[in-house]
Amino acid sequence: MKQxxxxxxxxxxxxxxxxxxxxxxxxxxxxxxxxxxxxxQAGEKILKACLYASGExxxxxxxxxxxxxxxxxxxxxxxxxxDQAKMLDRFYIPTRYPNGLPGGAPxxxxxxxxxxxxxxxxxxxxxFCKGFLMKFKSHRE
Length: 141
Hints:
This protein is mainly α. 70% of the residues lie in helices and 0% in strands. The chain has 7 helices and no strands.
């Protein structure tokens, strides 16, 4: 369990840093496609932090929806973030690869509103996850 808590801290710290970067991108009004992807990454990492804190030794996958569903098995209140997880999953491939879109390129397709929506969604996930992580006293140390 001690190893899992240490791993949880590593993932949550990186998630926090990713969120800061996404907010900086939004403030600077630059690279909206990349900002949307970074919010997806921040969400993925904070969800993985929760699963590690709960004792998981290996947490694989990139779908926030699937990670949130795993969290629901541990805490039914996680159901409150499933919609945000699904929304952020849409930014995993299309924000990075032109062939993930029917036309255009990611930098042409994603805009300021997309990034603002992504940040609001990931912030809701963070609020839940921080509460979940507080249950693990060693996580804060």
